[in-house]
Amino acid sequence: MNYENILLEQIEPAIWLLTVNRPRSFNALDALTLKEIHRAALEVGEKEDARVLLVTGAGGKAFVAGADIAAMQGMSGIEGRQFSRIGMEAFRALELLPIPVIALVDGYCLGGGCELAMACDWILASDRAVFGQPEVNLGVTPGFGGSQRLPRLIGRARAMELLVTGRRLTADEALAWGLVNHVHPADRLRQEGLAMARGILEKGPLAVKLVKEAVQRGQDLDLDNACALESEVFGLCFSSEDQKEGMSAFLEKRSPDYKGR
Ligand code: CO8
Predict the structure, then answer these.
(1) Total structural domains in the chain?
(2) DSSP symbols for 91-155
(3) Counting atoms of ligand 1 from 1, which one is nearest the CA of 137?
(4) Average confidence (pLDDT) over 246-260
(5) Whose CA is nearest to atom 36 of ligand 1?
(6) Which of 6, 158, 165, 245 lies most in the core, judged by the most C-beta atoms within 10 Å?
(7) Given this model, what pLDDT does residue 1 score?
(8) Whether residues 194 and 209 fall in one domain
(9) C-alpha closest to that of 67 among 18, 124, 109
(10) 48 is catalytic
(11) Catalytic residue, candidates 36, 115, 192, 230
(12) pLDDT number for residue 199
């Protein structure tokens, strides 16, 4: 498929990279970019051989510096709601992809950028990454899920502080607050992301998909229903060749040869 504001490429077998590519505006998200992210998520979701998606920003200055302020400035209430929905749908499509989605964040990751990163399964940051939800500085609230995903990720009090004060977090602060999983030197970020993706390729493909589904579908359920969901998913694993292969390989002291079925 053709894209204007993003790049979607297979960088290694089974590993895909989505790059938000508007470096002159620090990869700000306008409606077209959001729609392209949505389309790209659907495209990757349809590829049977895709097993990990990495998400990043072009230009070395920003992952994404937010929703496009120039595009938003003159919006009416209805247009604002529509723009918000376009972003919500795009990020939800990414979040619900049946494969791990890892954000590689270098530089500014603000507003809609932070919301995009949070819609990924986890975040790897460079040591010069900067996180924040600065919407209050502009007289608005987050509109792409930030007020909902941030408290779920780092807890209500810390999320409230960031959302209400608009203050920025350094990469190390974001690490300490549990917003990012690891911090790497900027020149190593992509390699570290790739190494992590390659490691995932060695795991049982069905189990990787199913555990993501269990987390995604279970996290907003009450504990009884969430644990019941896990039992269903666990049981389902036993109908797969991968389970037989994984456990046989362990007992036979060899590496598993997974087929993804
Ligand atoms: N939108 C549009 N353009 C942007 C954005 C943005 N979010 N961020 C940066 N740019 C542009 C600048 O306008 C500038 O363009 P130009 O060269 O044409 O003037 C270029 O990128 C470089 O920016 P700066 O010159 O400002 O570079 P600095 O290094 O001085 O500063 C910053 C970098 C700190 C990232 C600064 O640009 C900044 O503060 N940007 C805005 C950050 C922000 O407030 N983000 C939140 C936006 S609101 C949001 O994301 C809400 C999401 C939900 C929307 C819901 C829909 C209704």
Answers:
(1) 2
(2) HHHHHT-SS-EEEEE-SEEETHHHHHHHHSSEEEEETT-EEE-GGGGGT----SSHHHHHHHHH-
(3) 44
(4) 97
(5) 65
(6) 6
(7) 79
(8) no
(9) 109
(10) no
(11) 115
(12) 98
Cα 197 to middle of ligand 1, angstroms: 30
Mean pLDDT computed over 103-121:
98
**What's the predicted TM-score (pTM) here?**
0.98
Contact 106, 63 (CB under 8 A): yes
How far is the C-alpha of 38 from the C-alpha of 8, rounded, in Å?
12
Which structural domain range is residue 222 located in?
A: 205-251
Answer yes or no: do 147 and 214 share one domain: no
Q: What is the CATH number of the domain that holds 233?
A: 1.10.12.10
Half-sphere exposure of 170 (CA within 13 A, CB side): 5
Q: What are phi and psi of 137, to 5 degrees?
A: -65, -25
180 and 216 housed in the same domain: no
Tens digit of each residue's pLDDT (9 = 90 or more) over 169-185 = 999 999 999 999 999 99
- Is 115 a residue of the active site? yes
For residues 215 and 135, state if they share a domain. Answer: no
- Please choose, from the candidates 179, 227, 228, 234, the residue with its C-alpha nearest in 3D space to the C-alpha of residue 211: 234
Q: Which amino acid type is present at position 134?
A: P
Cα of 29 from ligand 1 centre, angstroms: 10
Q: What is the pLDDT of residues 21-69, one digit of tens each?
A: 999 999 999 999 999 999 999 999 999 999 999 999 999 999 999 999 9
Angle of CA points 21, 115, 91, to nearest 5°:
75
Residue nearest to atom 3 of ligand 1 (CA): 25
